[in-house]
């Protein structure tokens, strides 16, 4: 299974610390060696880095570290291909423009028999189920409105679309338009909201620690989303299966969750991914 | 005025040699210091690098050199802002998806009173005349057809659109869908087609030479397009004012040129750009 990383903040923040742990899973501490991608929003613009080399030793990933890009919304994805070939056109995150803003999307999981009708506004370029799902979501949102609706309408419409799509299989994803960030879990997805008082965090995948109190202001709020927790001394929250969450300014502003919620252990989540041949 | 660079080939080729000369104009041998962008097609996928640092000493440009990406279609742009602020959303090349392929566009010049109606399929994210022109071109092409038309129809439709747009000012641009590359000159644009027998070329902006016969096969054909010639010992061809050309596999396959053709000297071209405050 691939892994997802997302960050949504109320102030431009560099993702280097989280990304350093995350990228190690691409070839060093884990086996996601079939390339990676990371996309940053900078105001309305985006910066996108894709590489077909494992993230652990990719020069593109080295540049991301060296550059310390500050962003309020970041989405990253490392890939373990279980079927289909690695190609740039199939590398997450995917980007399209809608309502005069860029939208960015990354997925892990696997959708079976998911063949939405060809879109009028959005068509896939590659041949993954992930890009098909992304284009289908945008197509349906765009069909319903010529302008970006309010967060509430957006969340409700997306929720209905996601319910339909996840009936085809595993659909863990992160989606952002540079203002808000949506995260949805079918199996494994975790998050943490860091805010004052900030403390020290130590990476699980590398011998690196950071004292956030030294690099933040008391008003900063940063939500980090990851398939599996990235740090060993913080309490990460797990998304329930089929939970959809919307973040804005580093905080959860909408959420929809089955009642009662159901949580998978890491072993159950990974086994489920293997069983369906999740390849996103 | 900004500068454009394009490459269209019949085999994946690295653009490092041309880009090394070109990037020097971003802060060293010329004054285009307000950022740069370069986009590569790799099969159907794209790789895009933007930086707001001068290209001459940008770590992103260093990565482009180190990576030696091989591509059949490349578009690059270095920027000298004369008005408006530098922002990522305004950095060329711009990208959109149309007919299931990515389209990439970079412009230099300046369009006055160019305010096309808001598009149904394509809207600008930033606020440049360049992105407006790109979205307008795609909108009009997409409105006319649900599928990519043949090269001939595409060229004729684009030619009509360009005639309308260039009535608003200076419109030097390069456009590609990864299969063909269009180039249009209002003022200064040059090209060279390199094919067997290959010889040695020396950069104008750097003390670098390359012997293409050592790095090519006899079947290779590479067209390079640049605002001003990049090498000192080769014969570059100049586009006439208002000439539109379509390249495929490193060769010109369509062209439309006023009769008689009119050519500007470098001094005339630069003076004209200054006079209209070209800022693309």
Short description:
The structure is a homodimer of 280-residue chains. Chain A is α+β, with helices and mostly antiparallel strands. Chain A is 21% helix and 35% strand.
Description:
The structure is a homodimer of 280-residue chains. Chain A has 280 residues and is α+β, with helices and mostly antiparallel strands. Chain A has one domain (3-276): Aminohydrolase, N-terminal nucleophile (Ntn) domain (Glutamine Phosphoribosylpyrophosphate, subunit 1, domain 1), CATH 3.60.20.10. Chain A has helices at residues 16-24, 59-67, 129-144, 151-166, 266-275, and strands at residues 3-14, 36-42, 45-51, 70-78, 94-98, 101-111, 169-176, 180-185, 190-195, 200-202, 209-211, 221-226, 237-238, 243-248, 251-256. In chain A, a hairpin with a 2-residue loop joins β2 and β3 (45-51). In chain A, α3 packs across α4 (151-166). The longest helix of chain A is centred in the middle third of the chain and has 16 residues, at 129-144. Chain A binds chain B through residues 42-48, 50, 59-60, 63, 66-67, 87-91, 95-97, 99-102, 121-126, and chain B through 42-48, 50, 59-60, 63, 66-67, 87-91, 95-97, 99-102, 121-126.
- Biggest sheet record of chain A: 7 strands, antiparallel
Oligomer: homodimer
Number of helices, counting only DSSP H or I runs of 4 residues or more of chain A:
5
Number of strands of chain A: 15
Largest interface comes to: A-B, 31 and 31 residues
CATH architecture annotation name of chain A: 4-Layer Sandwich
CATH homologous superfamily descriptor of chain A: Aminohydrolase, N-terminal nucleophile (Ntn) domain
Taking all residues together, what is the mean pLDDT of chain A? 90
InterPro entries (chains A, B): EgtC-like, GATase_2_dom, Ntn_hydrolases_N
Organism (chains A, B): Kingella potus
Keywords (chains A, B): Aminotransferase, Glutamine amidotransferase, Transferase
Protein name (chains A, B): Glucosamine--fructose-6-phosphate aminotransferase
